[in-house]
């Protein structure tokens, strides 16, 4: 028998060798009996199936000039020096044997730079090297008289004049020197992935992070304090490893994750800038973050049975801290040489999703987490630094056990109409807290409509209540608290929330999106503490393709958070009330024009503006306004991208940031408060500019 071949026939031929020889073919009509004598197989090669080999991608460099008199602008520009440089790359190599490699770099050389290198063979192994730098800047104009900033020993000048108040420190202003409060993190990692036989694979990843800089701290002597610069020199080593076994409809994985944290400095000493009173010392000491370790082992898996998917995870972890105590300046007998801290964590998560039929899908999940603090409880002699005194204090071994369960359903009412709903339950059991047990239940529903042409809409609502065991002040944590005080995370609460979103595309080139959210937390049983919190937000965005070459985008977002609380100044019933009003507005727009100058030039501009305001009012007989806090930020990026040749692009960026805030906490003169030696005024009000010229070359 003879018949013509087609692509399907050839595909069957290609796989015929994999068919078990025991499969019987009826009367010689098997595919292996097809007449292929006149077939020219070389003409049937799939042109589009060819895997490209060799090098591809692009590489670029950039150099920029930064004009700023406030280092805070480096949070936006990722450049703290006058001149900045960067390297960008997106390079790939593919070999005929399956060997492949890639190099990705983004702003490498700047304060937010990163790099990622992968080398391996598809489906067999991969070696990864990665690097990332992250920096955050607070100020470079903090003023301090202390010498030795950056070390663990802060001293005052030899001619320092001590005083009972900051106004009595006669050479304070002459001794002030600026310092920079900033933190930098550098991460470097190495990872290996190996795919064994079809059933198993394994991986191991190692990362080291170094965090350095200065952060704000304070040292106290009774009722007098000084702002001081705490040195940060942390090293964290992290290891993640695991093995995975898998089949056609199942897999299981065993993983380990561990971290080791080390601090170069164990304590910080500082001179007392005030005249010692009430037996205060001339030198103070502060213990810094101690060395510690954390290790976790987990087992997870998934099984697919028809239309049902089941997965779960169990884990066990242990956190330890056993660094010797720093006893400098402490004249009492220590009950132990170290905390010998130990916390064990255990947990389990299970989830099942099942499609009952074409219309209905059900899901359920359960989460269990337990934190068991096994640290020994010791009795410690207190040192008095304020009016709250005591003969002895105890370290509190906080424990918490959390159980969470969820049930949900997804039902297709009709084409373009979908209804979702569910019930969420949570129970927390705590030790040494004002409330031992809290329980929270929430019901929710979501309705989505996509039946109307060019419209997509949904609305979601939920209602939840939290209550629990009898509330009583804990002698461990609330010895001087009002019995009527309720902590917001433990108090009875009723939460109502509704949110909706509408997306409309009236024409193919225009998309309009709008969303809104309303949430109300009612603490109706609280007499003293947070009594109500309201959160209202909405956002809108537009994307419009004006022509084939011109695109316009814009968005707006507003969020209002209003909180009400009640307090008592005499440890009795409420006699003052406070209202905090927070508002955040964010506006943005972008415009781009492509294919100018014979389709070689693209111009664009992006603009964002954010304005955050906070106002606090307190009423106690009369109403007092604490004044507004605000932060206003304008960001502009104007750019031009020019295709100089078929392989080379040149880009010019101009970035501007206008920033202003008035945080009263950052606007205190060094001698502005009689018993506080501050860092001075550190509010921000600046215009910063960055010009960046970059070139990229395509291979």
TrEMBL record:
<feature type="signal peptide">
    <location>
        <begin position="1"/>
        <end position="26"/>
    </location>
</feature>
<keyword id="KW-0732">Signal</keyword>
<dbReference type="Pfam" id="PF11854">
    <property type="entry name" value="MtrB_PioB"/>
</dbReference>
<keyword id="KW-0998">Cell outer membrane</keyword>
<dbReference type="InterPro" id="IPR020016">
    <property type="entry name" value="Decahaem-assoc_OM_MtrB/PioB"/>
</dbReference>
<dbReference type="GO" id="GO:0009279">
    <property type="term" value="C:cell outer membrane"/>
</dbReference>
<protein>
    <submittedName>
        <fullName>Outer membrane protein MtrB</fullName>
    </submittedName>
</protein>
<keyword id="KW-0472">Membrane</keyword>
<dbReference type="InterPro" id="IPR036942">
    <property type="entry name" value="Beta-barrel_TonB_sf"/>
</dbReference>
